[in-house]
Amino acid sequence: MIEKLSKARLKKLGKYVLLVFLAVYALCNIVVFFSSKKYMSRDMAALPSCYTALVLGASVYASGEPSPILADRLDKALDLYKNNKIKRFLLSGDHGTRSYDEVNKMRAYLNGKGVPDSVIFTDHAGFDTYSSMVRAQKIFEVDSLIIVTQAFHLRRAIYIARKQGLAAYGYQSDMRKYSSINYLRLRESFANIKAFFEVLFHVKPRFEGDKIPITGDSRKSFD
Fold it and tell me: Tens of pLDDT along 36-51?
C-alpha cells in the first residue's frame, strides 16, 4: 500500500514539474520573441545606420571555409558596409583552441572580399551569444550596433543586447534553405530559457579582459 502511494505521489510530482517546465519554456520564448520583434528586419533600408555590425560566429570547415550559415552572415554584413550602414565589423566567435578558430577565418573571408583589417575587430571569446553581447559592450565599448545572423538566432541576440543597454537592431541573413534549420529552431527555443536567466542574474561571460574600443586600433583585437 505504501509503495503504491509513493508511486502515485511521484507521478503527481512529475506532472507538476512538467507543467512548471512548460510554463517557464513558454514564458521565456514569448518574452524573447515580443521584446525583439520590432528591432529586426530583412530590409536594409528599414535599419538605422550604426557604427558597428556584430557578426556572430558559426561553424567553419577544416578547409577554413565558413559554413553556409556563417558565409551568409558575413555577406549580409558586407552589404551593410558597402551601403554605408556601418563603419566597423565586430566578428565574435569561438577561438577556444588552436585547432578551431572561427574569428580569424571570418576575418580572412572579409579580407578576400576587399575589406581592410583597419575596419575589422575580432572577439576571440564569443563562445556563446550572451558572451558576445556582454563583451561587445564591456570590452569593445559598443553602444549601438546591427547584429547580423539568421532569424532563428536573431531574436535572442537582440533580446540579450537590449537588456545590456545596447541600442541593438537585427539584420536577417537568411539567404537560402539550411538543411538543419528545424533542429536549430528547436535548439534555439531552449537557448531562450538560458538567455532569460543569464539576463535575469547578470551572469558574467567566461572571459572579460582589457578594453579594446571599437573606435580605436583594430589590430589590438587580433591577438
Answer: 999 999 999 999 999 9
